[in-house]
């Protein structure tokens, strides 16, 4: 009833506003009175809030939203498990693309997720829904794009420029210490399978290979660069292990390969050049995580 009474009043306000000046081309008033903007998504133009307040942020983009100063009203389970965001997300519920009733109850004004998620048409009925194809944009372009969506492009661009400068400087220091030709591998065990990673699959790969310009072993480049990751057996570790090893480790999964002679005899392990990271805190490539990864590499490679 209240909404019906408000609409005539809002229409009068809009008429009055139009007499004072035309609205900007990319912003207009919605029927509910909130300003909206037209955002060009992968799937075409989407009317989104000019200043989103209640964002449902799903894997793998919740960290991007957090990095832009917006606390989501709901996140996916992987984001919730990140120990570094435990305090920030303490009271934030977990949802998936299938929890439609729960999402409705949260009354979001924007939903962000990956293009492969389910129920996108139904989610779009709840709130404007914008999805991205993982890897279509590089990791820094992706952050700027989400900055555009959230009307925070200036902040996103500023962070990217600063990060690139800091990462380049750190990379130069690391290469000066370990040698230009030294190689680094990133491995992770998940559900009894070992994976080696390319240059754009989180786990610090963007920082190591793209931002800092460190080298990956030829075998990793051959098998993992294009798909992003490659499954190997414990016996194959010597073929894929670089001079340095980044071990992304889930404490609650099978890491028995680390107790084998094959692993312990890797040159990187024997020389103390295998650096173990908490996989739950290390797996994403949002700005907050990238900063964390960069500091991790400073500490492990440079002792800073």
From TrEMBL:
Principal location: other
Chain positions covered by the region annotation Disordered: 23-44
Alphabetical list of Pfam families matching this protein: Peripla_BP_2
Signal peptide interval: 1-21
Location of this chain's protein in the cell: Cell envelope
Keyword line: Signal, Transport
InterPro entries reported for this sequence: ABC_transptr_periplasmic_BD, Bact_iron-sidero_bind
A GO term from the CC aspect: outer membrane-bounded periplasmic space
Fe/B12 periplasmic-binding domain ranges (all copies): 53-304
Segments of skewed composition (Basic and acidic residues): 26-35
GO biological process: iron coordination entity transport
Family under the similarity heading: Belongs to the bacterial solute-binding protein 8 family.
UniProt-recorded name of the protein: Iron complex transport system substrate-binding protein
């Amino acid at each position: 009833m209240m909404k019906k009474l408000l609409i005539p009043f809002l229409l009068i306000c809009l008429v009055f506003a139009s007499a004072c000046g035309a609205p900007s081309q990319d912003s207009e008033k919605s029927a509910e009175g909130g300003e909206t903007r037209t955002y060009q998504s992968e799937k075409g133009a989407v009317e989104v809030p000019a200043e989103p307040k209640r964002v449902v942020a799903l894997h793998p983009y919740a960290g991007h939203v957090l990095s832009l100063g917006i606390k989501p009203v709901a996140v996916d389970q992987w984001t919730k498990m990140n120990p570094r965001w435990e305090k920030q997300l303490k009271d934030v519920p977990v949802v998936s693309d299938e929890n439609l009733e729960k999402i409705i109850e949260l009354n979001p004004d924007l939903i962000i997720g990956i293009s492969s998620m389910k129920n996108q048409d139904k989610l779009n009925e709840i709130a404007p829904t914008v999805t991205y194809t993982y890897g279509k944009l590089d990791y820094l372009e992706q952050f700027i794009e989400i900055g555009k969506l959230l009307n925070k492009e200036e902040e996103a661009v500023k962070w990217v420029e600063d990060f690139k400068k800091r990462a380049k400087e750190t990379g130069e220091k690391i290469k000066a210490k370990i040698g230009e030709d030294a190689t680094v591998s990133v491995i992770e065990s998940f559900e009894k399978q070992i994976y080696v990673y390319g240059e754009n699959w989180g786990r610090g790969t963007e920082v190591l290979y793209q931002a800092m310009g460190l080298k990956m072993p030829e075998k990793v480049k051959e098998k993992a660069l294009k798909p992003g990751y490659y499954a190997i057996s414990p016996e194959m570790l010597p073929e894929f292990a670089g001079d340095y090893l980044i071990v992304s480790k889930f404490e609650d999964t099978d890491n028995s390969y680390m107790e084998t002679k094959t692993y312990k005899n890797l040159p990187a392990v024997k020389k103390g050049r295998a650096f173990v990271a908490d996989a739950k805190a290390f797996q994403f490539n949002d700005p907050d995580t990238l900063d964390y990864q960069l500091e991790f590499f400073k500490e492990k490679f440079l002792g800073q």
